[in-house]
Design goal:
The structure is a homodimer. Chain A is of the alpha+beta class. Helix content of chain A is 26%, strand content 25%. Chain A contains ten helices and 19 strands. Chain A has helices at residues 2-16, 18-25, 200-203, 207-216, 255-270, 287-298, 322-325, 330-336, 349-364, 381-393, and strands at 34-35, 47-48, 54-59, 66-70, 82-83, 85-86, 91-95, 102-110, 113-115, 122-125, 128-135, 152-160, 165-173, 187-191, 224-227, 280-285, 305-309, 339-345, 370-374. In chain A, strand 2 (47-48) and strand 3 form a beta hairpin. In chain A, helix 4 (207-216) runs parallel beside helix 10. At the A-B interface, helix 1, strand 9 and strand 12 of A face helix 1, strand 9 and strand 12 of B. Strand 12 (152-160) of chain A pairs antiparallel with strand 12 of chain B, so a sheet runs across the interface.
Chain lengths: 398, 398
């Protein structure tokens, strides 16, 4: 017991106060930039400079080689590993080129092995908790926490028959939800991308602050936003849903049933919602956009507003045949769907071009859609924060 | 763009479906035990065996040495690093001795550098996101998710004048909170230990499931549980609270003011609470227990129920002088405080002995207190889950 308690406090102090360790080891080195807002409490690195460069620093006295591996591209961090340089005390440092504003996943390679940066909070992406760095966008605060009324993000547990297990959904309730106890609200179902989960939209995406700010400015209707994980494996063949054994080979096989038969009914029983399609929206990013189009176009009775952010729509797009003919009757589609929103970033050209071609082909065939472009951003959360801000402001207007 | 999209999907698939990789690499090896419930989606390792042994496995083909470092002691994982053994494909494996049920922090040492296990969810402890493993306790389900009505855990943002920044509190609302819209609830303020934060009690501690189960069985009154971070640095000397610059040298210096002047008033304005001390309880574990005693004994007007779990009460304890004489008038204390709860695990002898000595001295001086012992558990979350279950059932009974 003694052997543990004493070292544990020491270890915690080291983690909690890295500034003092670094300052002690490197008294002469002036420290430029600011600690990233994505850092853990008290961590002085990574530091973000005014021009968007980032200085990473990691204490790894026993490692032979330490690198930074960016978890994306076209964001200024580059694509390959960035070699860090060791100093005499075993701290490894690298300063990057100027980066693009937004949120960038990254991790360390310690002698070639992927590991998170102990100075960074973790964000669930790439199928696991992953380090991330927040680069402020000068003059832009639509996703910042401000002195406006704040909604809550609630973790809610519900049972899904489609997947045979308990699931956790994150649910944003707008600032007036707890005081306007007779009021009913429209609902946006909002899905993450590949490798992420129900935490992504609030943690990486700052969806709650985006909505708080839009609502405070009168730019969006107060709404509930349901952020569940899109991963929905059906029960294992030969088992029942109740057994809880799920088929990991089919990561999204129960998505439609999970959403339409379990999640929507749960939300509409647990929250004060309008219970019909004209007050239901759905959107998703990347893989979540594919799933959004699949379920919303395959079940036209469910959602009146549809948002597809950075859809992996890479092949030929024919409005007559796409999505089992859902667009074939343009007049009927336009009458039924109040908004079909398509968007992408200019720095993710395959997504941007595929999405724009889809939009153009739809317009040509008479199907109305909105095309949104996020200038200068890639297949990353800054694109989707801007997308959500634009999309949410268009919802539930009539 | 192409260079990124293709490898990224491949990488995500690798993370999301490790079972297939492992099965492919190790067809001959029978896989015993069950994936830990603390693993990320789809991760087959670590695996927990029926007798409590754990098999860890990590893919690290380029590392020279990989070890498991337990983040605690007296839990069966040992105290020093456990060496893992490399196979021909670069997977490193170790199976531990039988462990104690509960939640154990751990991390990897990759060539001596601390790193999280990519197969584990992260849990904020040791001042950073940290791997953890859940070992089931046979026949015990008081903290399991069950088919009972569930409350929610809400992330709530509020401004603290004492610390000069925005803070996030986690707030458990009981299952009937949203339907009993006229009902007011008592509140338990519940604090984590050193190196942890507002997420600890729901994530590691499963406080919400403990309360759901107690309430469903009629063993606890429906209550709100507020779980904020105890870390509360005051503004930097020479600055104002409004500037947001905080003094990292004083990690808990603004705790009392943060709690009494900012958090309690915020909770009592944002939730339907009873707004007086007989409906307010406070508890904490380890460092959180010290803070609990500090604020509750220093401000007797604030809380009627006090719980100190695994208090670091190691020195001599004199009821006449301890806590500025708060216990000196036993009759007045007993009339004012409805419950003073003290507890510890039998496998954390210094905490258990110090706490028991405090209890004994208090009894001798006429001050009533309850002493709770968690058999077979150490300075870890299983002790605190049991402590919460015992403590919460005693609250708000009159």
């Amino acid at each position: 017991m003694k052997a543990w308690w004493v070292p544990s406090v020491a270890a915690v102090m080291v983690f909690a106060l890295p500034v003092h360790r670094v300052a002690h080891a490197q008294v002469a080195a002036p420290v430029a930039g600011q600690p990233a807002s994505s850092n853990v409490r008290g961590a002085e690195y990574p530091r973000v400079h005014a021009d968007g460069r980032v200085t990473f620093r990691v204490a790894a006295p026993t490692a032979q080689k330490v690198q930074i591996q960016p978890g994306g591209s076209d964001n200024g961090l580059g694509t390959g590993p960035l070699d860090m340089v060791r100093d005499a005390t075993g701290n490894w440092t690298v300063t990057t080129a100027p980066t693009v504003p937004g949120f960038h996943y990254y991790w360390l390679l310690i002698d070639g092995v992927a590991a998170n940066d102990p100075s960074s909070e973790t964000y669930f992406g790439w199928g696991r908790p992953t380090s991330g760095i927040e680069i402020p966008e000068p003059g832009v605060d639509f996703y910042a926490i401000k002195d406006v009324p704040h909604g809550a993000v609630r973790a809610q547990w519900y049972q899904s028959k489609a997947t045979g297990n308990w699931r956790r959904a994150y649910v944003y309730t707008p600032p007036d939800y707890d005081t306007q106890t007779k009021k009913r609200y429209p609902v946006l179902y909002l899905f993450h991308g590949m490798g992420e989960d129900e935490r992504g939209w609030s943690s990486q995406g700052k969806a709650n602050f985006i909505l708080d700010n839009l609502i405070a400015e009168g730019k969006a209707k107060p709404m509930i936003v349901v952020m569940d994980t899109a991963y929905a494996s059906p029960p294992m063949p030969g088992t029942t849903a109740q057994s809880g054994a799920r088929d990991p080979r089919s990561q999204f096989g129960a998505f439609d049933d999970m959403l339409l038969k379990d999640l929507v009914p749960y939300i509409e029983s647990a929250f004060r919602t309008h219970k019909e399609r004209n007050h239901r929206a759905i959107a998703g990013l990347s893989r979540g956009a594919s799933l959004t189009l699949q379920v919303a176009l395959g079940h036209p009775e469910a959602f009146a507003y549809i948002g597809a952010m950075s859809t992996p729509q890479f092949g030929a797009f024919d409005p007559a045949t796409a999505h089992n003919g859902a667009f074939r009757d343009a007049a009927a589609f336009n009458a039924r769907v109040k908004l079909l929103w398509l968007g992408a970033g200019t720095m993710e050209p395959r997504f941007r071009e595929g999405t724009h071609a889809m939009h153009t082909a739809l317009e040509k065939s008479g199907v109305k859609s909105v095309f949104f472009e996020s200038v200068g951003t890639s297949h990353e959360w800054q694109t989707w924060r801007r997308s959500l801000s634009d999309f949410a402001a268009r919802l539930f207007r009539d």
